[in-house]
Fold this sequence. Notes:
Elements: E1 3-8, E2 23-24, E3 27-28, H1 29-40, E4 44-49, H2 53-59, H3 81-96, E5 102-105, H4 115-127, E6 132-138, E7 147-150, E8 153-156, E9 173-183, H5 184-190, E10 199-202, H6 214-231
Amino acid sequence: MESLILIPARGGSKGIPGKNLALLGGKPLIEHTIRAALDAGLPARICLTTDDERIREFGLTFPVEAPFLRPAELSQDGSGMIPVIQHALQWYKHNENFTPRFLILLQPTCPFRTAQNVREAYQMIIEENSHALISVNPVNEHPCEYVVQEGRGFSYVMDPPELPGRQNFPKVYFINGAIYMVASSFFLRQGTLFDKKALLYVMKQNESLDIDMPEQLDFANWFYEKTRKQKE
């Protein structure tokens, strides 16, 4: 059974106006995710869901699908991702009688996620016969070193182990939003992308950079140029 890679890219954005078409390394931000999806070579259709005709036209310069414009009510600042996914799955079911094996969500705000990351995550969920997978990366600052003020004292967010030293801290990861994979049957039944039984696909810090604010885009462009020159 084919899966469906969904790339959500609405036209509006508070942090960076026109974010999905903002340039990263001389290319629109969304292009990096489209290329990762294409180069992954998964048995999957690739769908761009957007409310913006300019984004749709740009996306269709690649061999991806954009068979609809997302309704305005699903393209607001407060619009959640779950209704966006439900809309796409319902469209394919009603118009093409297609229900994918897995729904794979790749958000354009994580442009350094690679095709290899996507392939490895897909192989992992297939081999483990799991219903859900999320991408994560190790945290820089550990919760065992975070405190919450309580009156004139404090409590730890996570109690440190009895043995001193960071090497004894439990492994903690951050859900970076780069890759979500979920069996369509589970998503349609539960209305969620994952539960606590989901697999964790661990990514490197430099693959997990997320772009939502102008300063993050500036840093991403600096990082892009630095890594490009290192490869030359």
